[in-house]
Design brief:
There is one protein chain. By secondary structure, the protein is of the alpha+beta class. The chain folds into two domains: about 120 residues, Jelly Rolls, CATH 2.60.120.620; about 35 residues, no CATH class. Helices cover about 25% and strands about 25% of the residues. The chain is built from five helices and eight strands; from the N terminus they run ββαββαββββααα.
Length: about 180
């Protein structure tokens, strides 16, 4: 387990800019392709607990660098070819988090979704920023799983220990989205 959030209805309408989770918006075409051509080592997912239309993607963009039109576009505006991912309550979508995507959230729409990513330890530094950039490395060592049954305790402690080791091995991973 790398990331696990409960996403809820906001108090105010807002949206996220077009982005790839592990590639800075200032990346050149060559830098994007270098990262996109490496294994992802994880899958990101979203499970809608209410009907949800907040995830907007550019299909198949996880396999290519941004076009010049995508680079020049208003980061909060619609882009030709975009697709709104329409989930019914109980639907789940798995995706590569380096697909070009954004979130659009309305205070007038009930929203609750579980969102996370899971990966494999052998991804090492290629997935460290995905796992640790949200501050996980700052608190994960404080997680106490002693109340879990033994069958789950070992798994939870193992996941925690791998995240701690990833943080020690990779140090300060920074953030892909600095602006």
């Amino acid at each position: 387990m790398e990331l696990y959030n409960l996403l809820v209805k906001p108090d105010e309408d807002f949206s996220l800019r077009w982005h790839r989770d592990d590639i800075a918006p200032t990346a050149t075409k060559e830098e994007e392709l270098e990262r996109l051509n490496k294994p992802a080592w994880h899958a990101q997912w979203k499970l809608a607990l209410y009907d949800d239309r907040s995830l907007v993607i550019i299909p198949r963009s996880h396999k290519r660098a941004r076009t010049q039109g995508e680079r020049d576009a208003d980061p909060y505006a619609e882009i030709p070819g975009q697709k709104v991912v329409s989930l019914r309550a109980g639907d789940i979508v798995f995706y590569n988090n380096n697909i070009l995507h954004r979130g659009v959230y309305s205070k007038s729409v009930e929203r609750m979704a579980l969102h996370g990513s899971m990966g494999v330890a052998r991804g090492s530094s290629d997935r460290a920023r995905n796992a640790l950039q949200h501050g996980v490395g700052e608190w994960v060592d404080k997680c106490d799983f002693k109340s879990l049954p033994n069958s789950l305790l070992k798994r939870a402690e193992g996941m925690r220990d791998r995240l701690i080791e990833m943080g020690k091995t990779n140090g300060d991973v920074g953030f892909a989205q600095e602006d």
